[in-house]
Design a protein that fits this description.
Layout (H helix, E strand, L loop, with lengths): L1 H31 L7 E2 L1 H8 L3 H13 L3 E3 L5 E3 L4 H22 L5 H13 L5 H13 L4 H4 L2 H11 L10 H16 L3 H23 L4
Antiparallel strand pairs: 1-3, 2-3
Helix pairs in contact: 1-3, 4-6, 4-8, 4-10, 5-6, 5-9, 6-8, 9-10
């Protein structure tokens, strides 16, 4: 009986690992733009393509729904989450609270080599690419030392790499956004948590102002 219980536990952990791995592959495809917001993810095609059965695939969809990457209908059909302006603004307000709180925690814990490398990469680039933009905010949350804050990494990536770049104003404002993110990193490099908080608020205020303008009807 003991041997059987261990085997069952092992199989359960294996299934969870496979579902998590499958969810990771799908989410990376969403972040890279391979799967667009609103796109239906066909179970049979994905099952064959990824070489997994329907059970871990459905479990992967459940994980991704919890993280806000996909939405499931009553039939279990998965669609890449499509975020309207109102929901995007709410998500960014929440992120501002999280990242402002993380600033004070991250100052003493942040990896100086990682900070220097990312700062150099942003300074040397003409614009803020979605992937580099999310790195700034992921580094901030990851350096907080707080596992609850670190748990919102998917929210950062889905907003920075998928939904913000899809807005009409984003391509012409990447340079300004890059400068604001450089400012956040510079404050962290100077171990000034309060100044970093101000820079974080400036960044999100800039995003909110553009989104608010997008909601206003054209006269």
């Amino acid at each position: 009986m003991r041997v059987q219980a261990v085997a069952v536990a092992f199989d359960w952990r294996s299934n969870v690992s496979l579902a998590r791995e499958t969810a990771g592959v799908i989410s990376e495809r969403v972040f890279s733009g391979r799967y667009a917001p609103g796109q239906v993810l066909a179970q049979q095609r994905l099952s064959e393509e990824l070489g997994v059965s329907r059970t871990p695939l459905r479990e992967a969809f459940a994980l991704l729904e919890h993280e806000g990457v996909v939405q499931l209908d009553s039939y279990g059909r998965a669609t890449v989450t499509k975020m309207d302006i109102t929901n995007l603004r709410e998500a960014l307000k929440f992120r501002e609270l999280l990242e402002s709180a993380a600033c004070g925690m991250a100052v003493d814990k942040i990896s100086r080599p990682l900070l220097a490398d990312l700062l150099q990469a942003l300074r040397n680039s003409g614009t803020a690419t979605p992937h580099n933009a999310s790195k700034v905010h992921l580094l901030l949350l990851g350096s907080s030392g707080n596992r609850y804050l670190q748990g919102f990494s998917t929210l950062v990536r889905i907003t920075e790499e998928v939904h913000l770049p899809a807005t009409a104003w984003f391509p012409t404002n990447t340079g300004k956004l890059r400068n604001l993110q450089v400012g956040i990193l510079e404050c962290l490099a100077e171990s000034d948590g309060k100044a970093a908080q101000r820079r974080v608020r400036e960044y999100f205020n800039e995003l909110q102002n553009h989104l608010a303008a997008s909601e206003r009807p054209i006269q």
